[in-house]
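Objective 1b: paired records.
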Amino acid sequence: MSLVMSEPMRSYLDFEKPVAELDSKIDELRTLAASGSDIHEEVSRIEEKAAQALNELYAALTPWQKTQVARHPQRPHCVDYIQGLITEFTPLAGDRKFGEDEALIGGFGRFRGESICVLGQEKGSSTETRLKHNFGMARPEGYRKAVRLMEMADRFGIPVLSLVDTAGAYPGIGAEERGQAEAIARSTDACLQLGVPNVAVVIGEGGSGGAIAIATANKVLMLEHAIYSVISPEAASSILWRDGTKAQEAANSMKITAQDLLRFGVIDQILAEPKGGAHRDPEAMIATTGDAIAAAFAELNGLDSSTVRNKRRQKFLEIGRKLG
């Protein structure tokens, strides 16, 4: 994904070039207006044109364009949702077997006054934090930490919230040596065995087993322009055509958008994003997500452990049957 840069605090995706040009013109006119020129009507006219162009673009995004939006570097990340929605958050570290994995954040806090366990992949928002969090790609110890926290939450009757945003589990040699596949499988199983309600929200990328390891939930919500897939478009392109440049073609064929996944029953709800994507109004997106999470948990309140497990099991057994 390449970005067309304007001013430091604003970035545009390739397909947003028409909007970028209009915004650049608006900035120029505002500079003239600040020097005393009476061009407010012209500024307003171009602002309306830019807003219309943005609305039209985002009303008809292709799967590949949605992939670019889901990966936008200014999109709100896991830590932003935790900061905006969770009070008294106390992060816990380590899997008690090997070490700490900062790609996967986990801890306990309060969501709208109620205790909650939070798990989420954090990609980072600067060079330093991206390296610190390994771009959101967890190693085995990250998933073993998730299992530890889920078991603790279950023991104390605390519901679990997962914030999913990863390109996939880390594929390095060390991760494989320490049992990456086994760790993902055990984390997925821990989700299924929870006797407390769990809700997952795909806030950006939902990449393969790295995502489903914490997203096997009673309710799976997904942002409007997020993606959720068994493999990245780039990897699928390399495998199917032995050509990594056909990622766009792969994305358009893989049914990775929220709209497709709702139709197949993979997810339960799509959360509308602000015009132009979540990165254009993070506070509004976080507030919308908070309301949806509260509503999802409200549907599960009062259910006993057996019912919670059965409902979750039935949900995954029914995936794909809606079109059958």
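Objective 1b, second protein:
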Amino acid sequence: MSDGREELEARAKEDDIEFFFAMFVDMHGKPCAKLVPSSAMDVLMGGAGFAGFAAGPMGQSPADPDLIAVPDPRSYTKVPWQDGLAVVHCDVAVDGELWPYSPRVILQRQLERLEAGLTFNVGVEAEYFLVRRRDGGGIELADPLDTAAAPCYDAKGLSRMYDHLTTVSRYMNQLGWTNYANDHEDANGQFEQNFKYADALTTADRLIFFRYMVHTLAHRAGMAATFMPKPFANLTGNGLHMHSSLWSDGDNMFDAGAHDDPTGLGLSSLGTQFMAGVIDHARALVAVTCPIVNSYKRMGVGAPNSGATWAPAYATYGGNNRTQMIRVPEGGRFEFRGADGAANPYLAMTALLAAGLDGVERKLDPGPPNRDNLYTLPAAEIAARGITSMPPTLLHAVDHLATDNVLRAALGRTPHGDYIDYYVQTKRDEFAAYHSVVSAWEVDRYLTLF
């Protein structure tokens, strides 16, 4: 079987590529790369070496052998704003074996568990803010005129950021991603730029590149971009809505037929069972899809100054109803709203697929769709209906994750035990570090209270 070298060399020659970024991500989704000259193709194809302990949480100590980032030629992406540069996403290996701490490897192993002929397609909506750093510390919106009380879809806000947004749009289309919408989102300074869905691995690769592209272009324009879930306490946070469907030989298996629509929302029985699995595993799933302490400042039912939270407070589903964790906007797909801008797409899609397939295997029934505005439904009514609340903190979420055997199996084994235990401990340490910091809020509230 070809390793794709000839195709990669041909594309590099056609695009006049002088350098490659050999890129992979750590647990947090941070892109790590080495710059390899195209003249060193033997080095690139053999795998660029990294000291794994220095790269981030990748299951290594300083005593361990190098991580070897082996390029996947299918992921070749010409960098539109930098002549002579291309990115290739890599699968990490150690001592000649794929490394089970590598998020991209974890997703591919989960995809291999799909029945022959099935494809898991995902589309993502990545929200972000454009900001500037203050000289005295902190951040402010990059556009000082973006102060409207209801800024969502504001044409004037779009116009002021026209150069940035249209540049990103053109580059996405040059890459063949099919950008189909760009809008000012619900918060001041917040934007969303959409591209067409693809198979899960391709979409995950594209999202990593998209974030890298938005960061780079914002920096070149004297701004900073942030996908942080909740950078401003008084504004709507950054979500990562994920639209999912299973396909077989060009047919959407989630699309309801004339006699196969159990919820009346256009989802087949397969899609409905898949959705039910996501709901059943929601409290553990969000430890992966909302993976940092800041994520849980975005969730809840209270509205920020700029509008609704748009983040789920409960594990529910409904039709075209954005107060639900799962929205079914039309037949053939559903939108999972329980992910945010900090999500590592490889791990998030692994967990989402595993939860859904468990629902299919157990033929779970999600019950009737919820048609209420869950942001205003009284707590007593929530409790009476037995509706499951989302975890209030990262610590609560990872405690749920630690006991979820389906997600444990999906995230796989490592030489040192289950990956889920490594992930959970990393996140518990993260929460402990956060919790040990004394905040200005605490000082203001308690300093002279007693």
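The longest strand covers residues 118-133. The chain has a mean pLDDT of 96.
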